[in-house]
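Lab notebook, design round three. We kept the backbone fixed and only want residue identities now. Task for the bench partner: fill in a sequence for the structure below.
Input structure tokens:
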């Protein structure tokens, strides 16, 4: 007899959804988390009345009503719509790439004029079947936008030439021939009023959670405690890196409280798209919740090379790493008592709604006979 039905490694979104659903079904769960807080990367901390997104801007968006209804049971969401601004050497452009951007760049006023320019630039580049991020970007929006708004940002974000990055990364961004600065195409979007941490607190309300507990420091004792493991850490670490180390891109966040400054940049997110500015974006947290506080808090996001031991933020889904991941995935698929889930264990560039979706699928499969 085991003390717990499930040992859940990681108190991020995946682990928390699983723990909540399993507990609801009468299962006994233990969550272990190596950080000193719950929530993983969606963690927000209230500082001077402002909910600070401690691991970068998090905007919830989904097209799936089931997932939207699901998160809404844990918090009320506001009507925030992400409309980041790009600052290229002091010039300001709207994102994502839409008629406002095209007007600001080329002075064109109609979709037809904009499409003509993009098509001309695409033709001049000679790209037919885009094979990497650079080719994909140029074929979607042309050379001018690529040079000013994509190349510099992308190469500092990923620390690699855009020609060696997978094309799918740039397809995250909409390209629109209407005047619409909404960064996402999804039907539902917003920020939980009061921060994301509240959502996770509710999910884990009736669950035993041990913070500051690294699974690998206590692996034997922990594995002996539960019937099954739900693992949301790095998959290569689980297998002691036997097929090699999966690479990530890391980040450094520099947060500043600006006393007496009510409104620093007039927008929640400003991207710095030139190569020279060392950070990729500045976020001003109060704007996520339409804050009217007297002070403000900003965070600069600096991309950084990742080495084992650093926080892994973005999986590098290039061919080399995907090949290594395949081998780990094969091993994982043979496990009877370990479930792998979330961004790190599946080595996927997942947004929050995708993580919730996959956690709910896992739950459905796991409890299908009950
Ligand atoms: P994580 O949040 O990484 O949780 C895993 C947890 O496991 C962590 O808390 C970790 O400490 C813990 N853990 C790992 N190893 C161990 C171990 N050995 N022992 C114990 N605990 C361990 N998504 C959106 O939808 N919208 C956005 O705007 C958005 N913006 C983002 C911005 C940034 C900068 C980043 C990095 C991500 C963003 N995301 C966004 C993605 C979002 O953060 C993730 O989809 C989500 O947080 C992933 O949840 P997870 O549970 O899979 O992983
Ligand atoms: N990107 C860019 N310029 C921008 C914003 C994004 O070139 O102003 C590219 C960059 O390669 C980035 C990718 O588009 O990694 C995806 O952007 P997104 O905003 O979705 O990144 P995330 O919020 O996940 O870091």
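Proposed sequence:
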């Amino acid at each position: 007899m085991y003390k717990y039905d499930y040992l859940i490694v990681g108190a991020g979104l995946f682990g928390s959804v699983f723990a909540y659903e399993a507990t609801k079904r009468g299962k006994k769960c233990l969550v272990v988390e190596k950080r000193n807080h719950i929530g993983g990367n969606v963690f927000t901390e209230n500082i001077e009345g402002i909910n600070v997104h401690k691991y970068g801007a998090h905007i919830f968006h989904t097209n799936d009503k089931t997932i939207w209804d699901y998160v809404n049971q844990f918090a009320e969401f506001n009507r925030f719509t992400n409309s980041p601004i790009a600052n290229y050497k002091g010039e300001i452009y709207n994102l994502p790439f839409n008629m406002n951007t095209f007007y600001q760049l080329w002075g064109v006023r109609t979709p037809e004029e904009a499409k003509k320019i993009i098509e001309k630039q695409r033709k001049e580049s000679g790209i037919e079947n885009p094979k990497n991020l650079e080719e994909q970007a140029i074929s979607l929006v042309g050379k001018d936008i690529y040079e000013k708004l994509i190349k510099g940002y992308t190469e500092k974000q990923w620390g690699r030439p855009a020609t060696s990055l997978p094309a799918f990364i740039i397809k995250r961004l909409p390209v629109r021939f209407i005047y619409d600065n909404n960064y996402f195409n999804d039907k539902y979007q917003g920020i939980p009023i009061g921060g994301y941490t509240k959502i996770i607190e509710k999910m884990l309300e009736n669950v035993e959670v041990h913070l500051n507990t690294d699974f690998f420091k206590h692996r034997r004792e922990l594995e002996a405690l539960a019937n099954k493991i739900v693992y949301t850490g790095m998959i290569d670490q689980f297998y002691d890196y036997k097929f090699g180390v999966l690479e990530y891109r890391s980040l450094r966040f520099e947060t500043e409280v600006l006393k007496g400054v009510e409104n620093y940049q007039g927008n929640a997110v400003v991207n710095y798209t030139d190569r020279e500015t060392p950070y990729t974006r500045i976020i001003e947290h109060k704007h996520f919740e339409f804050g009217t506080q007297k002070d403000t808090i900003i965070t600069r996001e600096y991309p950084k090379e990742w080495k084992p031991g650093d926080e892994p933020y973005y999986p590098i889904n290039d061919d080399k790493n995907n090949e290594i991941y395949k081998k780990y995935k094969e091993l994982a698929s043979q496990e009877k008592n370990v479930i792998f889930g979330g961004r790190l264990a599946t080595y996927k560039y997942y947004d929050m709604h995708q993580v919730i979706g996959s956690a709910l699928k896992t739950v459905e499969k796991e409890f299908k006979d009950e």
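Keep this in mind before ordering anything: The chain has a mean pLDDT of 97.
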